[in-house]
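Worked problem 6 (solution included).
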Amino acid sequence: MPLYDYSCQKCGPFRDWESMSRASEPAPCPSCARDSQRLITAPFLADMDPHNRIAHHRNEKSADQPLVVHKHATEHNHAAHSHGSRRRGHKHGPSRPWMIGH
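Solution. The predicted structure is:
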């Protein structure tokens, strides 16, 4: 359940946990039990894990124009020359750039 901000006309602002299905309904003030309207507030992103916050920032940044990564010419030439020849040492299958150390 999310934490919402409410404002009581008599007692002032307060926070309360409420189900999303009841988000548009008024909540009772914890002090005077008067129905209080929910406030519209920005999400508090400082509580978010720093790694998730960085990932969200990168996703938003690349939404319009994703960064295109090109293969280096040396990697392309190496693959073309070693394709038909047998490498020394242990044998690997096709090149997998996501496999670190291979």
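Discussion: The two ends are 46 Å apart (CA to CA).
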